[in-house]
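protien #1 (seq + structre)
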Amino acid sequence: MTGKTVLVTGVAGFIGSNLAQRLLQEIADIQVVGIDNMNDYYDVRLKEERLKKLSGHKSFIFIKGDISDKQTIDNLFQEYKPQVVVNLAAQAGVRYSITNPDAYVSSNLIGFYNLLEACRHSYDNGQTGVEHLVYASSSSVYGSNKKVPYSTDDKVDNPVSLYAATKKSNELMAHAYSKLYNIPSTGLRFFTVYGPAGRPDMAYFGFTNKLVKGETIKIFNYGNCKRDFTYIDDIVEGVVRVMQHAPERLIGEDGLPIPPYKVYNIGNNHPENLLDFVTILQEELVRAGVLPTDYDFEAHKELVPMQPGDVPVTYADTTPLETDFGFKPSTSLRDGLRKFAEWYAGVSF
């Protein structure tokens, strides 16, 4: 990727900002063009802090804009001609999709369509165009799949939330565009990403905020949920490796392109019980001085039934990622939560 122009959408987001930082620090002569609409789904100050760190790099360009605005995307492609596109812009969150479906259709469907169209037209008039489109999918596409670990070979036709349905739609749209226009594309199904300066709507962050205020945390499905928690650095490492190896363009017997299309899981391949997760989190919050040593956790815990749209377990089969890229996420939950707790202890807002 030396000397290339990379477009990162959702660049002020948790994964987007960490990815951009890594690219700018480690790859020579790279230009990172980032776009983000800076919406207030969660505290914008977090997004501004992430952007502030990126703005110190002279080869970083930030555009405040929305991928659901076709003109914005077309102008961006025309001006910067990105060779690699990483789409991390999306309306995230399963529960929010139940009450605010419009945001998901706008960002996750129309926004992604705009990017696919821009990639398609990047080849107009014999131009080299986009070499690789990498986009975020989600473990939520597996729905309430009973077979674990989840494999990318499994059928994923029964989403249990609109968010999951939009992510499955992204994979289908990418496949169609890969077939029709020979666009190399790779979808990445992320499994419960966490870490410092993460998303406040995620359980580990939300629990911490509530415990600090002395509020009660609700543990769903009476604590019988399992999640494949994946530390942010492992996610970024996986994305960087995938970015550099686009699926090969090949022609089939029908004379048409065989879709240069792949989908991978990026997860820790080690699901943790929610009650164990809460125990580790509280130990690390005490260790970092976020909470006092005599904090009464039992008084601040409530076991409640499962919520609509949630699933009891997420568990990634990461064998294809390991086979194709020699990489497997490995950060333990304790190490990851320790880094989060230490970051939280030093935050000023």
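ok now protien #2
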Amino acid sequence: MLMRTDPFRELDRLTQQMFGAANPGTWSKPATMPMDAYRDGDEFVVCFDLPGADPDAIELDIERNVLTVKAERRPYPGKDVQMQVSERPLGVFSRQLFLGEALDTDRIAAGYEAGVLTLRIPVAEKAKPRRIEISGSETDRKEIQA
């Protein structure tokens, strides 16, 4: 159901882990988010890990068959906050998926619960398996009826 994957995604993830994406001046690309994708009957389900993201800070856009998920984990509000330990990355997280023609992108449903964004994308009617009736020639039909 996914058309393509980004061949450099794993390399980007490893580079971020080694050099750190939390330092704003060292990484120009938005951080990525882990995802699972699977087919469940007549739906294609995609789950993104976005712990600590406010639902209002999540954006979903689709243009042609490219789905873009963008989320922001913001710093803690308050003037008197003094961080003691800061290991959780902050900032913008982004991910793009190239969806196949077999999916109905007009009917995507999205839900966010327990830090997981879940998208349910129905399989398009034209892509669902269907039974095709086989008919014989006119002479075969006459012989059967006789």
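The longest strand covers residues 66-73.
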